[in-house]
Amino acid sequence: MATHKGRGSRGGKQRKQTHRGAGVDDSVRSSEPALREQLSFVTDPLALLEGLFLHSPVPYAIFDVEGHCRLSNPAYRAMFGSVPPPEYSLFRDELVAKLGLDVLLRRAFAGETVQTPVIWYDVKELRHIEVKDAHRIAIACTCFPLSATGGEVRHIALAYKDVTAELAAREAEQLERSRLYQLLTQSPVAINLLRGPELRFEFANPLLQKLMGGRALVGRALLEAIPDISPELVSLYLGVLETGEPVAAHEYPLVIDYAGQGQVETRYWNMLYEPLRDERGRVDGLVTFAFEVTEQVLARHAVENQQRWLEAVLDSMPMPVVMAEPGTGNLVFSNAAADRLHGQHIPTRVSASEYGALFHVTDLQGRRLSGDELPSSRAARGEKLEGMEAVWHTDAGERVLSISSEMLPAMHGHPAVTLLPFLDITRLKTVEQRLQEAIRARDEFLSVASHELKTPLTVLSLRLQAFARATLVDPESPWALRHGREVQGMLRQVMRLADLVNGLLDVSRIGTGRLRLELEQVDLRALVQEVVVRFQPEAERAECQVELEGGPPAVGTWDRMRLEQVVTNLVSNALKYGAGRPVRLRVEEDAGLARLCVRDEGIGISLDAQARIFHKFERAVSERNYGGLGLGLYVARTLVEAMRGVIRVDSHPGEGSTFTVELPLVPEAPPVAATDLAS
Fold this sequence. Notes:
The protein is an alpha+beta fold. It is about 40% helix and about 25% strand. Its EC number is 2.7.13.3.
């Protein structure tokens, strides 16, 4: 008990040990003369006493009746790090008072030698002095009085013993034991310890006792505590004792009366039996760790039952379905419809690397697919199939299939699986082929009919043009005054009919692949200017002002006639749907592209109609109000895309429309046949 740099005392109470001190014990007093006689040969007894005090390995400190430290030896300073400060007093020490040691100290001043219990002392807990860098230390003290010649005790000596390491080790051991016991008792695993050939319970944690219905286990033999345990399980226990080898039981069905009320039930366990050995290495017991897995086993059984039910449902479906393992592509299931389509049961215990030889599957062009190209392999790699078409050559014949896939993640106890439903579209393909033949026949008919119509229309147009020129030569003649207006009207109708026939002829050429492009150097601005001049009479009738913004030439490699047809269709549409308002055209060149913009301020196009106006026979407005077959934009799109360009529209109802055509000045690849784009 001393204040010092970083040291102190604190601890539990032990039984106090006291005996009579040096100033009181008669035997001690009687030995004093003898001691003095023995020291008579020492010339300087004080030096001898000083040497003993200074060189003693036992820490000593001497305190006066007020509790102040008057003397301490080097061993004391080595243990505590410093001497107590002058203001320290044993009788003001809060820890001494708290532990009740002040009573022992006063007994020492009364002449007794007393022994303090082992205490933990932490000087940081003192309040009457301030000490920095303190340490907590475990000490035991022997306090004995120092009597003067007259027998009066004015000082006491304290001999200290540092037991920090010993006490810390003992407390650590106790803590480890407590933690181990807490771990065993609070473990979510049922644990028991059996000793001897009769398998007597030495330990059973609370979970095991709860699972056993609260039966008394500890101290009782296994068959006495659990008489309804199966002989097979007892044999497992005895086998561990005999062989000394650990044993594991997986999902062991243990059928006993768990509640101890005569009701037997089955629960499933994963159990591990480990042998226990004595100090000589002989097996004298075993410890059991048991995990109840009843819920997992029952859940798996439910999943297996559900799997069988699902397979029965899939077998009743008319659509062929197979399931493949993600990653490997191994087939794990095929329903009855898929087996019927194959002509026999589809093998599901074969590696996916062998599927290329087992299954004869080709693409629509007749090329056989390898194992990696099969739909199940592609879907297993994570590729999502949507209507992949292939021909399956089976014993039952050739079937054209439309195959899709869906990756189902692991859920509800089922592993992840790739689902591949098939659609047998053999009949649809046959019908499609017939329809394509019918379409080709129709296109051939349109082509022939257009050619046949074009010949008389050309003759009629030339004749009407001659009449029109005659009326212009002598506009005041009776014939011109009487028939001039009718001739102009008939000429416009014939020209309109000629445009319709030309449109049908273009469609037939696109459908039959006879539309070819003749590329040459073309100035797009000059071509647009020519079209604007040609449409001037029609613009006047529509009360539209057609404006072409100025700018430099835009020269590229295109088909002049087809490009003129695109511009004509766009300008004609702008005049038709923007009558009475201006039409503006702009030609510009930017980053290797020529761009044509045709802007009208007419009725506009709704958003849903914008997606379909570039298709064949599609219109954005009612045909009752506006004429035409709905082919102009379709033909324009096909021709633009054939020249590797794009066409798009930006429009809002009531706010007009802007059609934009972008063409590369020099095509990066040869132009494609228009029929390829149209298809």
